[in-house]
Design a protein that fits this description.
This protein has about 375 residues and is mostly helical. The protein has 12 helices and 2 strands; from the N terminus they run H-H-H-H-H-H-H-H-H-H-H-H-E-E. It folds into 2 domains: about 290 residues, no CATH class; about 45 residues, no CATH class. The protein has a two-stranded antiparallel sheet with strand order 1-2. Helix 2 runs antiparallel to helix 3. One of its GO terms (cellular component) is membrane. InterPro entries: Mg_trans_NIPA. It is found in: Membrane.
């Protein structure tokens, strides 16, 4: 009897394990979401690169205009603005599908695209003797940027937290983020003072302002996109006041960020803006995301070190991409005399930007009222 009972127990079919299949389908669904988010981010950064070059082209054509805001009257500049908004919308949508640590490093796509578009669209030609050397360095830089981005994505912190109103409010009032906000506000005010009052038009100063604003944009975009996704899924989050606070902060920082980028595009090459902006914005955005969302809590030392290595490799790649840009001619005076009889004027010196070499040079303007 015992032997027959044991045989019956052995022949009894095992109950189906329901945990294996849902786990696999959940992993597959997560992979699809990450893929959709990555594709949206790549599309958005490509469109933003095209928009920046369109605006740069508009500023080049209107460099000699007396009206400093003449570009507002051109369709090209407004087309660039529309494409920039479209690209930013694509990047915004990507945050709803993929984590912040995956989307932020993908901005390296704009660096590579801007370097290529700048050569074709702005007609920035290389000298024949330097073509091979610059091509090799640019190719190596693109490869390093891709490898660094891969390491960033692979070893990025794997934190998945639902963007509910309670969680966002808890992160917002935490003392690490409040301390970070205090430091960022002080630094932003100092940079803005030197930029406006001391006329510090260095590209690092301008893009630091952009990066500081961009870090808040990234944090708020992640919160707004996550709350919208939860609301669409049935867990309504739009009745939380924190949603509208984040939305207002997102719009305000994005608008001022675009304004500073437009000012930078008038003085510097778009590829240089993209490369330096990538280094600064990625570093500050990852820092802000780590402080706000606590992404690196619980991560082991190996993942953190490999993530930092990916940052360094990507930074080196974007540096090599723009290292051998066409150098500026130190001085290109342009003298124009009014030859009308009885109306002889003394030539005057005015600081007018000459954008043929992406730098600001001196030129002589006879219509200037401030004579030598």
């Amino acid at each position: 009897m015992d032997r027959a009972r044991g045989a019956a127990l052995q022949l009894r079919p095992l109950p189906p394990t329901s945990s294996a299949d849902p786990g696999g389908s959940e992993a597959s669904f997560s992979y699809k979401e990450n893929l959709i988010g990555a594709l949206l981010a790549i599309f958005g950064h490509l469109v933003v690169s095209i928009a920046l070059n369109l605006q740069k082209y508009c500023h080049i054509r209107l460099a000699g205009s007396k009206d400093p805001r003449a570009y507002f009257k051109t369709k090209t500049w407004w087309l660039g603005l529309f494409l920039m908004l479209l690209g930013e919308l694509g990047v915004f949508a990507s945050y709803a599908f993929a984590p912040l640590s995956l989307i932020v490093p993908l901005s390296a796509v704009s660096v590579i695209a801007s370097a290529i578009i700048g050569i074709i669209f702005i007609k920035e030609k290389w000298k024949p003797k330097d073509f091979l050397r610059r091509y090799v360095l640019s190719f190596v830089g693109c490869g390093l940027a891709i490898v660094g981005t891969y390491l960033l994505v692979t070893f990025a912190p794997n934190s998945h937290e639902k963007m509910t109103g309670e969680n966002i409010t808890r992160h917002l009032v935490s003392w690490p983020f409040l301390l970070y906000m205090l430091v960022e506000i002080i630094l932003f005010c100092l940079l803005l003072y030197f930029y406006k009052e001391k006329n510090a038009n260095n590209i690092v100063v301008i893009l630091l302002l952009v990066a500081l604003l961009g870090s808040m944009t990234v944090v708020t975009v992640k919160a707004v996109a996550g709350m919208l996704v939860l609301s669409i899924q049935g867990n309504l989050q739009l009745d939380y006041p924190i949603f509208y606070v984040m939305f207002v902060c997102m719009v305000a920082t994005a608008v001022y960020q675009a304004a500073f980028l437009s000012q930078a595009s008038q003085m510097y090459d778009s590829s240089l803006i993209a490369s330096v902006g990538y280094i600064l914005s990625t570093t500050i955005a990852i820092t802000a995301g780590a402080v706000f969302y606590l992404d690196f809590i619980g991560e082991d030392a190996l993942h953190i070190c490999m993530f930092a290595l990916g940052c360094l490799i990507a930074f080196l790649g974007v540096f090599l991409i723009t290292r051998n840009r066409k150098k500026a001619i130190p001085f290109e005076p342009y003298i124009s005399m009014d030859a009308m009889p009885g109306n002889v004027k003394t030539p005057c010196v005015q600081l007018l930007p000459v954008y043929s070499n992406s730098r600001s040079n001196f030129s002589f303007d006879p219509t200037c009222s401030n004579c030598i």
